Amino acid sequence: MRSIIERFGTAIAGLMLIAFFLVFAPNFASPTNLLNVVKDTSFLAILALGFAFALTVSELDLSIAEVASLVAVLVGWMIQSKVDPWLATGIALAAGAALGACNGFVVTVLKVPSLIATLGMAAIAKGLAFMITQGVSFVGRWPTGFTGLARGMTLGVPNLVWFLVAATLFAYIFLKWTRTGAHMIATGEADEAARLAGIATKRMKRLGLILCGLFAGIAAVLLAANLSSAAPGMAGDYFLYAIAAVLLGMTMIEPGKANVAGTVFAAFVLKVLGNGLVLMGVPYFVQDMALGVIIIGSVAFSASVVKRAAFKV
Amino acid sequence: MTASDEPIYALRAVTKNYGAVEALRGVDLTVFAGEVLAICGDNGAGKSTLIKIMSGAEEPTSGTLRLRGSDVRFRTPQDALQQGVATIYQDLALAPRLSIAANVFLGAEHLRSIGLPFLKMLDKARMAREAQGYLERLSVKITDVSRPVERLSGGQRQAVAIARALRWNADVIIMDEPTAALGVKETAQVLDLIRHLKSEGRTVILISHNMRDVVALATRIAILKGGRKVHELVNEGLRPDDVSHLIMSAPEAA
C-alpha cells in the first residue's frame, strides 16, 4: 500500500485535479478545449523530456528555454528567407543539438558545473536570438509545408499529438531498453561506479545534454510552426513549466528518478491546472504561485537527484 | 611450488611517483593461480597504489606487469577486466538505486536482436536470470534481483560486487578491504565468499587491515612498508599477532 502511494500518490492527485476541473470549470470538458490542452502539452512535454535527459545524467540544463527561443528564431529567419521548410527544420534541430553539445563540452571538458555552464549558455542564446532578429519578431505568411508540422492532422489526429507520442516513445525506449540509455542512467546514478565499470561517463553526460538541446529544438520548431512567428524569448514561459513537469514527474511512477511517463503526465497535469484556473476565472498570477509551490514541493518530497545535480557546484 | 610454476600475475620493479612523493619503490610481486595472496601494511605503505596499478586504475611510473606470461599494459580498469582481472573496490563501486541485476551487468549488458539491423534491446530477462545464477553459485540467497542494491546488507552488496566479477569471468579478483565496513556475521559471509572463489580455482588478491581475516584465508602474505615490499611469507600456522608484529617491526625503508 505504501509503495502504491509512493509511486502513484501525486499521479492520483493529478487525476483528481483533472476530475475537479471536468466537473467545476466551465467549458473545460468541451472537446475543443481538451484538444487544445493536449496540443499545448506537446510543446511543454517535449521540452521537459529534454530536461529529463539532462537530469538523467545528473546535470541541469537551465538554458533549454533560451535555446528553444534561439532555435525558433533561427527557423523563423530561414522560413522568412524562403529556405525549404525541411532543410530549415533540419538545420534548426542540428542547431539545438549543437547548442546542447556546447553545454556538454563546457561541463565535461572545461569542468564548469552545469548549473553555471547552462546559465551562461542561456544568456548567450538570448543574445544571439536578439542579434538575429535585430529586436523585431518574424511573422508572416509562412508556407503550410512548415506550419503544417504543428497545425496539420495525420490520420485524423493533430500532428502535435503525433510528435508528443513519438517523442515520448523514443525517450522511453531509449532510456529503458537500450544499452546507451542504461549507461546514461548509470552515469547519473553513480558516476564513479559507472566509470570503473568501463562506461564512458563523460560521453554519456555530453549525450544527455545534446539530447536536451535536440528536444528543445524540436519543441521550438513546433512552437514557431504553430504560431507562424518567432521572437526572442518566445519559449521563456515554458522554462519553469518544463522544470516543474520533470520535478513533479519525479514524484510519481519511479519516485526520485527523472522518468518519461511521469514527466509527460506531469506536463499534462500542469497544463490542465493552468487551463482550468483560467476557465474558472482565477487571476493569472495564481498560476505562477501554484507553479512555484509545485516546484519546491516536488523536490522537498523526492527528487534527490536534483539536489545532487544542483549542489555539486 | 616448483620453479617451473608460471605465475598468473607478476609485477617487476614497479614504482609509482606522485610528484615528489614515491608511493611505490621497486615492488616485485608474484601471484600464483588459485592462491589467496594477502597484501598487508600500515596506512601509507603503498597498498592502495599497488591495487590501483594492478587493477588498471593507474599506470606505474616504471616497472612491468606480466599476466599469464605476457607483458600487459592496462590504461583503464576496463582493459584489466577484459583480460580477466576484476577489482572489487572498498566502496564497492555499485550504483545503489539500480537493481541487483543492473549492477551485476553494469557496463556489460546483454542485448538481444529485435530483427532490426541497427537497434538492439537490453535482454533484461536474461540478465535477471544470470544475475540470479551468479548469486546462487555464491550460495547467496537473494530472491528478487530487481531490488535496488541500497536495500541490501553490506555482505549482500559484496556478493553483488563479486557476482559482477564472475560476470566478466575474471580469474584474478582483487578485493580492497572487503570486510572493513561489515559486522561480525557479514564478515563471516564474505570470508565464505572468498573461500568459494578459491575453491573454484580463482586467484584472489586480498588487501586487508584485519589480520584475523588475513591468516584465516591467505595462502601467502606480502607486507609493504614505505612503498617497498619488506616481507613475503607463506601462511603456515601464522597468528594474527605475528603478522601485526611483522608490519610494525619492519625497518622503515630509507
What's the short version?
Chain A is mainly alpha-helical and 313 residues long. Chain A contains 14 helices and 4 strands.
Which runs of chain A of at least 5 residues are low in confidence (pLDDT < 50)? none
Mean pLDDT of chain A: 90
Which architecture of the largest domain in chain B does the CATH hierarchy give at level 2? 3-Layer(aba) Sandwich
- Can you identify the CATH superfamily of the largest domain in chain B? P-loop containing nucleotide triphosphate hydrolases
Count of individual helical segments of chain A: 14
H/E element sequence of chain B: EEEHEEHEHEEHHEHEHEEH
Structural class of chain A: mainly alpha
Whole-Å distance between the termini of chain B?
A: 33 Å
Amount of helix of chain B: 25-40%
Identify low-pLDDT runs of chain B: none
Radius of gyration of chain B: 19 Å
Tell me the overall shape of chain B.
Answer: globular
Tally of domains of chain A:
1
**Based on DSSP secondary structure assignment, what is the total number of beta strands of chain B?**
12
CATH top level of the largest domain in chain B?
A: Alpha Beta
DSSP summary: helix tally of chain B: 8
- Major sheet of chain A: 2 strands, antiparallel
The CATH level-2 architecture of chain A is identified as: Orthogonal Bundle
Blueprint (SSEs and pairs):
The complex is a heterodimer of chains A (313) and B (254).
Chain A: H1 2-24, H2 31-56, H3 64-80, H4 85-108, H5 114-133, E1 138-139, H6 144-151, E2 153-154, E3 157-158, H7 159-177, H8 179-189, H9 191-196, H10 201-227, E4 229-230, H11 238-249, H12 260-279, H13 284-301, H14 304-311
Antiparallel strand pairs in A: 1-4, 2-3
Chain B: E1 9-18, E2 21-31, E3 36-41, H1 47-55, E4 62-67, E5 70-72, H2 77-82, E6 85-88, H3 100-104, E7 111-113, E8 120-122, H4 124-137, H5 154-167, E9 172-176, H6 184-199, E10 203-207, H7 211-217, E11 220-225, E12 228-234, H8 240-249
Parallel strand pairs in B: 3-10, 3-11, 6-9, 9-10
Antiparallel strand pairs in B: 1-2, 1-4, 4-5, 7-8, 11-12
Helix pairs in contact in B: 5-6, 7-8
